Amino acid sequence: MSRPEGDGAPSRRIPIRPPATSQSASRVTTFELFFDLVYVFAFTQVSRLMAETHSAIGILQALIILSLMWWTWVGYSWISNQASADQPFLRTVMTLAMIAVFIAALTIPEAYEDLEGGWNGPIVFATAYAAVRIIHVTLYLVVAREDSGVRRQLLIFLIALIPAVTLIFVGALLGGQAQLWLWLAGMIYDLGATWVGSALGRGWRLPSAEHWAERHGLVVILALGESIVAIGVGVAREPVDPFIMLGAAASVVLSVLLWWSYFARLAAAGEHALTTRDEYARARLGADAYSYAHFVIIAGIIVTALGIEDAMKHVGDAEPFGWFGATALGAGIAMFAAGTVVFALLVGVRRPIMRAVEAVVLLAALPVLAVVPPLAALVIAVTLTGAIALTESALHRRAEAMRRA
User: Across all residues in the chain, what is the average pLDDT?
Assistant: First the structure.
């Protein structure tokens, strides 16, 4: 609503409702879910890039792209926690950001190697990425126009943003190996400088713990959806047979186990930890446990989906699975487990030992996964992950019983 100011002249400020508080139990709006759908497409494109390159360098390239896209999503999640996205101005500006994100996602398959015809793929990606970041900062300045602490923090944030985006552009112009390493340097600088700047500025706000935890839980669900899609992608045009049915069942169980590993204990613990922190500590925890640690969780899910897709493509073969598919499957689960360990420690979950065991066991199993047929590799991965989950659950119940005794 416009309010009179000064001599009574009507205000020209953009009408934005004030931020939620932790007591308001603000929840994720339907528009935020709609906004996140463009990132579902980006996840799919990242998986496609990994599958087409089918190499360690290709996975590194894809993870760099994923980190760049993730960091854009993180920026808008902070804004929507500061002010409700379910209002005309924010919806309009975030729609512009959606367009830019979608264009960036469209160009992911040619982000490193321009396809014949059309515009230059790497340049288009860099331009769309820069547009998403510029829209984010501009929108945040409007949302925080009455909060000097956030405005000061955003100016510090620009110290990280400008060099990082510059490195992305220079890399796109140079191409080749220079592009890979410049983009990696830009990503690392952006993440590191933002973390240092946040510690120095102490200006970020995280009004609603409930909204923050729910928003990140939902993006984990969206990433897990990619693992489900990967099952169908591998065998969508093949006649159904017992191998496909067994592989599909094992893959779905694996996706459910990843879901359980995050939501059974960690999701609620993370939200509780946020609600018990004061303003600065909550923002710090929100950044460390969610903006940073959740990238490892999401990346682990996407890499696991690549392993599932590769296994399902050859689910009826008797030949060995091979190192590429085995590494994607086993290392993806291990990466996911490692991310949950970091998250658990940050939010105060005591002794997430079994998550660390899971990471070590899956990495140790890589040689076995590589030499057995794809279906056997899926079954072994599911068995190991399921056994560790059952053990963790039993240990948790025992600890709860001892605590209540």
Answer: 88
In the chain, the amino acid numbered 11 is: S
Phi, psi of 379 (to 5 degrees): -65, -40
User: Are the beta carbons of 247 and 375 closer than 8 angstroms?
Assistant: yes
Residue 327, token pair as written in the block: 């590494």
Q: Which residue's entry shows tokens 């960091």? A: 71
Count of residues in the chain: 405
Of the pLDDT bands very low, low, confident and very high (cuts 50, 70, 90), residue 298 is: very high
Asked if the model's pLDDT at residue 51 lies above 60, the reply is yes
Query: How far are the Cα atoms of 84, 161, 196, 292 from residue 192, in angstroms, in the given order?
Result: 28, 11, 6, 10
Q: Give CB contacts under 8 A, 24+ apart, made by 62-68.
A: 63/299, 63/303, 64/180, 64/183, 64/184, 64/187, 65/108, 65/111, 66/42, 66/295, 66/298, 66/299, 66/302, 67/187, 67/191, 67/295, 67/299, 68/129, 68/168, 68/183, 68/187
List of residues 6+ apart from 388 with CB closer than 8 A = 354, 357, 358, 361
- Residues 353-385: pLDDT tens digits? 889 999 999 999 999 999 999 999 999 999 999
The span from the CA of 176 to the CA of 296, in Å, is 26
Residue 385 has which token pair?
């992950």
Q: Cα(405)–Cα(400) distance, rounded to whole angstroms? A: 9
What band does 25 get if pLDDT is binned at 50, 70 and 90? very low
Asked whether the beta carbons of 54 and 174 are under 8 A apart, the reply is no
pLDDT value at residue 6: 40
According to the model, what pLDDT value does residue 262 have?
94
Residue ranges of E strands in 313-392:
none
| CA dist., res. 334 & res. 244, Å (int) | 25
Burial class (CB in 10 A: 0-12, 13-18, 19+), 398: exposed
Q: Is there a contact between 201 and 152 (Cβ–Cβ < 8 Å)?
A: yes
Dihedral (C-alpha) 378, 219, 195, 23: value to the nearest 10 degrees? -140
* Joined tokens for residue 18: 């004030």
Mean pLDDT, residues 240-250 taken together: 90
pTM: 0.90
Q: Are 101 and 72 in contact (CB under 8 A)?
A: yes
Of the candidates 227, 211, 290, 183, the one whose C-alpha atom is nearest the C-alpha of residue 29 is: 211
